[in-house]
Amino acid sequence: MACSVPIYYLLQREAADGSEGLLMAPDLATALADAADPAWRPVRITFGRQVLLEGEALSAAIAERRAA
To answer: How far apart are CA 55 and CA 5, in angstroms?
Structure first.
């Protein structure tokens, strides 16, 4: 039996040299914590095919998490 419900959040991020990385996180809070890593530029967080955060919305969510 196949499961079509995603069980992980996926963080797409970019390094200064242009390489890309993908990280899986069990929840959105963990994905945002991983996105705050200064060695990488966060690009987007998805859940399955749905883009949850990217661009300014992602930057704002990371800043809000740091302020908390």
So the answer is: 25
SS3 54: strand
Kindly give the pairing relationship between strand 40-47 and strand 9-15. Answer: antiparallel
What does pTM read for this prediction?
A: 0.85
Judging by DSSP bridges, how do beta strands 20-25 and 40-47 pair with one another? unpaired
Q: Which residues contact 43 (CB under 8 A, 6 or more apart)?
A: 12, 13, 14, 20, 54, 58
Mean pLDDT by 10 residues, the chain (68 residues): 74 95 95 94 95 96 90
Task: Tell me the residue length of the chain.
Answer: 68
